[in-house]
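in:
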């Protein structure tokens, strides 16, 4: 029965290939990189030989950033192995290449069609597959099982909404979970949802969130301080950051910013960073149509300190931006997208604001709210009010930032637990 269900699933995927191609072409009008490397999506990855390989899959930017400390730890712990790091999006690909360069091999992951997966596995021949967070593909996992390739789901999270979706295709999901060697979940609630879907208890591990295990080195601190001075200018104006915003949020943020400009004697600079690069131009037009003076990060010749808004239209700098602002609003939360990573501003000791939609980071958000490091705003009025209060009260701003940082520090340690599980699954001596 399991084989039959997966066979039907595969037929559906093959039937959808024309739709997938049309979707790639459509997305390429706004992000031309979607026209590239289609062969890799069909399994034509670079051929790897002469060294054993660990395959790590991170679907897009968020998962790639979460994987950074893990990849660096694997490189140190397993120096005789090469790492093949895959993703599904151009932004994820850009982040992998910017972060690791030639120190890892990189490809788009194959679509979950039997021939594409087999082609990829024949070329890469991985000893282990590590999947970040929740990117589960039945044919990929089944193919690894047949080839005795262990599969670990790392830093796993599963919201109630996602669990309900998986429950609707339980005959496909349950055999897939039963084929996994280990699921290393962020929280017990995530683990319980995996168990209800069919994961064996022996495969479940709870580690915490490895995103807490990030490191801010001295160079990063110096760069953030320099950027902060550049943004503030001679007038030392306040700076608030709206990070990873989605369609429908920018308008709310701009109304809040207008409110703040009207009420503060020293008008703040808003650093606005859309989540998706294809929206950069549209968001700039939105800001200008609302009457704001806009500078772009990609055009350093423009003086951001005299603008109303700095558009963060570069890739890979958000962590630096968090270190240069007074307040951080984390997007994807004023619209029902589930929120984005609020651990990064917490690590900097920056007070955090979000919207109410936080299901992708439910445990982290609860820790930060209970710890006093984050507040939830549900409108432009409440967002402006919280920002105004914090910008006008330096003591409260420091207190809230310190509370966020304490939460970040107290929850480190997930990476070492995950590495111990990797060592149990990876054959042979780590040092070769």
């Amino acid at each position: 029965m399991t084989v039959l269900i997966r066979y039907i699933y595969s037929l559906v995927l093959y039937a959808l290939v024309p739709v997938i191609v049309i979707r790639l072409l459509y997305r390429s009008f706004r992000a031309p990189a979607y026209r590239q490397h289609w062969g890799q999506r069909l399994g034509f990855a670079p051929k790897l030989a002469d060294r054993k390989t660990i395959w790590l899959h991170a679907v897009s930017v968020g998962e790639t950033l979460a994987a950074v400390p893990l990849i660096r730890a694997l490189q140190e712990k397993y120096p005789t192995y090469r790492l093949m790091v895959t993703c599904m999006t151009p932004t994820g690909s850009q982040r992998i290449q910017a972060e690791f360069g030639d120190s890892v091999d990189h490809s788009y992951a194959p679509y979950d069609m039997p021939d594409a997966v087999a082609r990829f596995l024949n070329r890469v021949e991985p000893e282990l597959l590590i999947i970040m967070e929740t990117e589960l593909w039945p044919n990929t996992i089944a193919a690894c099982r047949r080839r005795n390739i262990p599969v670990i789901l790392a830093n796993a999270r599963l919201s109630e909404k996602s669990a309900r979706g998986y429950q609707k295709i339980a005959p496909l999901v349950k055999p897939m979970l039963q084929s996994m060697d280990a699921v290393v979940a962020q929280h017990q609630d995530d683990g319980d949802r995996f168990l209800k879907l069919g994961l064996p208890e022996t495969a479940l591990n709870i580690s915490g969130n490895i995103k807490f295990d990030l490191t801010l080195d001295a160079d990063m601190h110096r760069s953030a301080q320099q950027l902060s001075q550049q943004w503030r200018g001679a007038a030392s104006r306040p700076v608030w950051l709206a990070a990873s915003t989605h369609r429908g949020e920018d308008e709310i943020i701009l109304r809040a910013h207008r409110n703040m400009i009207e009420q503060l004697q020293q008008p703040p600079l808003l650093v606005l960073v859309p989540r998706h690069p294809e929206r950069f131009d549209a968001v700039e037009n939105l800001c200008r149509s609302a009457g704001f003076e806009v500078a772009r990060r990609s055009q350093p010749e423009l003086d951001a300190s005299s603008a109303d808004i700095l558009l963060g239209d570069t890739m890979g700098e958000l962590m630096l931006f968090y270190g240069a602002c007074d307040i951080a609003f984390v997007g994807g939360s004023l619209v029902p997208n589930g929120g984005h990573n609020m651990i990064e501003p917490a690590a900097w000791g920056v007070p955090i604001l979000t919207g109410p939609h936080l299901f992708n980071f439910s445990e982290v958000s609860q820790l930060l709210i209970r710890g006093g490091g984050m507040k939830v705003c549900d409108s432009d009025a409440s967002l402006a009010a919280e920002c105004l209060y914090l910008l006008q009260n330096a003591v409260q701003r420091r207190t809230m930032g310190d509370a966020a940082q304490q939460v970040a520090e107290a929850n480190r340690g997930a990476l070492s637990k995950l590495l111990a599980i990797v060592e149990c699954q990876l054959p042979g001596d780590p040092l070769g």
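note: The chain has two domains: 2-208+413-425, 218-410.
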